[in-house]
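Work package 3, deliverable 3.1, input record:
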Amino acid sequence: MRKQRRGQIRIIEAFLAVLIIFSSLAISASLTTEHKTVESSDLASVGLQTLTKLDSDGSLGAYIDNGDWSGLRETLSLLLPEGVIFNLTVYDDEMRQINTEAIANGELNGQEVASIKYVCVSQNPNFKCYVVQLRLAVVK
Amino acid sequence: MVLLVLSAMTTTSSLLYPPISNSFGDEAFTRYGEIAKYILLNTGKPVDWGKNSQTVPEDFGLADADAADPYTLDVDKVSRLSGENLHVLSYAQIYTSLKIPDVSLRIEIKPLFETFVNLTATYEGEGETTYEFEVETMRSGVSVPAELRLYVVAENWLQNLGVHSSDGKICLNVTISKDVGGPALLVVLAKSRCNAKIVSFVAYAFAHNSQNPEAKGSFLKLSPLNHTLTVVPKNVDTTLTDVYALTFNYASTLEQTTSQNQSIAFAIPRLLDSSPTVLVATGWNSTRFFIEWTVYPQIPVAVGISPSESVSLADVYAYTFTVAINSAFYRCTVWIGGPKQ
């Protein structure tokens, strides 16, 4: 008689345990999807869109033609979203670096880096073609 | 047995849940990103829905139909997102015309940097008063070097204070004769020194020979649309005196075009200036002089569901873009989220 009762208690225990596990799984699953606001991690797309917009009126080519590296750095600092580190390198059509100073707002150390290559044509009467490499990372 | 079941279930769920969740997340991120781009690259239907105050779009899109470059938004479509505009689209109208029932969204458009004005001192002179203002241009607490154009508006009085160069913070004195009635309004239009298309603005109302100015929108509702400013007084005994359009390089007095049913229309000039147009209206409410202002396009603007307040949304993704409106650059952020899976 006692042995039968012990068996019944074990079965009830097992059902209770399963119930607790399922409910905790269900609650934790719903908690992880709620209010999960994620900033865009598609940095390459953001960078390309920014360069395209800056190039739409020839500004990008004008900065490069004039060697206005600080102007280009300040413009990118304003155009790119907050919390994004960038490093831009400008090459001529033979892939020789032509920017004489760093066009960056921080060090890209250890973060996941997105890299974009963009071909820019100067609107000067003298045809010039530049390759712009923009590397981006999110500040950690 | 219980321990065995427990450990087996925990292991299974911990192994399976993250990949399932991530695959849904990646798919949603890509899909929502395409929706955000669609809103900014598509003109909507009809293509000029922003210009006509009575038109509710069949398809929602903010792009300028006449623009040659992508991510160029229509000044009127953007203005119709603002709650300050008489002809604002409701969130329900945006949601319906977007025709994607399983997403909620929020759109924010604002300048790429901010301009702040503080009145720091007042000096009473003989026949005139000098006000000392501190003007700051910054982004996230970092100073932005800028060129500043300042205007002061008071009763029958518009003064162009010229262009001032600022490294991010500048103190400026404004002297106004005591013969001029107030309150007065200081309008600051700022252009980044590194790129003239990166602009910002602020308007600061202050007492001059008058009591403190009332909050913005107390006397008039100003709604710019299709290069026409519609002015609707909030009280019957309101009369308008002057209406100005101020940009970085131009200032002009607006001409009244029509007046009907308590609303008065003024033509806004089409100025070729990479600058927002600050529209200032002055007038009398009974015996009290007032100044009201708005900007065309009506930014900053924020419309839609706030992701932090909504409890019914699952993952919400933010997409940031640089957009052009009237050839000036602004920051546009589109938040998109779906229902819980």
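The radius of gyration of chain B is 24 Å.
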